[in-house]
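Researcher: Going back to the complex we discussed earlier. I've cleaned up the inputs and rechecked each line, so this should be the final set. Can you rerun the prediction on the complete assembly and write out the structure?
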Amino acid sequence: MNVLLCESTHSPLTTVAELLQQAPDVNLVSIARTGRDAIDVLTREPVDVSIHSEDTVELSRFIRDAIPETVSSTISRVVASPNPTTPLLVKAHQFGFDGVIAVPKSPDQLTSELVDVVSRRSSLSEHPVIRSLNLTPGILTRTLSYSNQLEAGIADLVGIGLSDREIAETLDLSLQAVRNHIEQLLQDNHLSTRTQLAVLHAINWSIPDFA
Amino acid sequence: MAEPTYRLLSELSRVEDYLDEPVFTDVTNDGETYTRYRVTRITHEVTDHPREWSHMANVVPVRTAGMGVALLRIVNRAIEDSEVTLSRTGN
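Model: Rerun complete. Updated structure for the full complex:
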């Protein structure tokens, strides 16, 4: 199993890296400390699993977007955390990760947990919290589409936190016109809530690297 | 404060007598969920409502099956705000 480790310089996965060097049936292909490093490795080398530190979860979407779909679709994505919390589980699920693991205590345990994720024996979607929330996986990996410039502008204003009424006043539209546009944006992008629209739009403002 | 009154409108009254655009978006779930409806008939005129609803209407969701009743605030032949109660479907 070929593994890429993606960690930021702020929170390196030192223990995981050490375990990966000793884990049976695991080949640590590389340790990426920037998004560019990760993209270079994924386009050059076969990788079965990419393991991310908590603070590289958001930026995994840029790595995913930058590599061919044929490569991206074959990679299992895992977040490793010293202390996986419920918000991290939900966030990882929404960013299209396949699993969240606590930093294992032994190389054998690490191999076992990775095999479970790759073979789909363990899935984030089956976690009781995720199931109870009835969330669609990978919502935050999507790229928004807009049918015109006005809708893009409305999404901008939703993304910076304006209310429907404030957007109506800003753009000199009726409240109903704004609501109709937001409903259309949600519909076209297969989203359920205004917050999903705001977050997904705002994500596009992030700088695509984790160095 | 006066109690709200609901005056039943004639069945001959048409939606276009009250509205330029019968399709509107209702927002629920703490401002999170947006649902588009079409007014099929305006049934009552409402006066003295504390939330300033001006009309009551029958509505249908545009993108799904169903039917419901809406309280509407109509200003200048446009729906300014709404509160929709969907009928429960028997199944």
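Model: Worth noting: Chain A has two domains: 2-133, 139-203.
Researcher: Good, that matches what I expected from the previous run.
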